[in-house]
Structures are given as C-alpha cells and as structure tokens.
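Researcher: Good morning. I'm working through a list of sequences from a screen, and I'd like to move beyond sequence-only analysis. For each chain I'm collecting a predicted structure so we can compare shapes side by side. This is the next one on the list. No need for commentary yet; just the structure.
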Amino acid sequence: MSGCMWHKKNEMMKKYHDNEWCKPSYDDKYIFEMLSLEGAQAGLSWNTVLCKREEYKKAFHDFDIFYCSGLSDEEIEEIRENYKVIKNILKLKSVRNNAIEILKIKEEFGSFSNYLWQYIEFKPIINSWENESDMPTQTELSQKISKDLKRRQFKFVGPVIIYSFLQAIGMVDDHMVSCKYHSLNK
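Model: Good morning. Structure tokens for this chain:
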C-alpha cells in the first residue's frame, strides 16, 4: 500500500498522521487543542504548527479550556513574548475567545464534542480518495459548521480551517484508500 503522502516530510508529521489524524476524538480538551492549532495554521504549514505544539501546550496550560477562557490581554502578550508560538496576536487572542465560546456551547449541548458530532449523527464520514489531489479543501459540512461557529463569535474558523479541523478530530477520514490507517483497512 502506498498510502497518504502528505506526511512524508518528516518524522513528526508521520507520527501525527499515524497516531492522530482522522482518528475520532470526543475529548473536549483535545478538540479545543486542534481547533486552536488549526486556527494558528492559517496561512502557514501544518509542519510549522506541529513544531510549536509543545510550546502552545505549555503556554495555554495543555489547552485547559477554563484557564484559556480567563486569560487577560496582558497574559496573552506574555505568551507572545515568552513562548515559541506563532506571534500573531489575533491568533493568540482567538484561543481565549474560542475557549469562552466553547464554555457557552457546553452549557447548551453538554460538551463541545456533542455540538460538533451531532452534525454527522455521531458517525465519522469515511471518504475513499484514490489520490490526494481529489481531496477537497472544504465541503458543505465545513461551510455549515464554519457559518454556525462564526455566528457564535468564534475566530479563525473559516470553512477551509474547519475542514482541516474535522480531519484532525476524526469526524472525517480522509486517509487514502491505499493507506493502512484508512478506516476500511483496519
């Protein structure tokens, strides 16, 4: 099996592909982490973000949603100055903003996971791509979720970011059908 090729760049990308990408997660903290990292990626490569992932975890207390929701502007500025994260202040402030909005969603749906997974009736979408070039950058689902998240005041949640996010948390399995990690090959 030839499998997915996008992760062949380095060992860290391969580890992410093999152990996390397209694996269903229902853990709000992990889902928040992926939303934050996907937002940080806007305009950059995933490799760049993965290289900074440990610094993000330190800076944002392992993506503790309550902690992040209470960050002050001064604390966010300290994160920008003292951690090896992407220095875009709007992306850093979006972590706090999105944590606040997730807490509101948790009140309404019980969890952020429930809110997201109900869009697909709690069952992953399994695609059967032969070539990576066939994989879309956004779909009707990512557009729908993006629109609702924006309505709820989330930041850095455009339909392309959301599609990558859906892959990251396993709501969508976009492994190539020839990849040993594709759901149908397990």
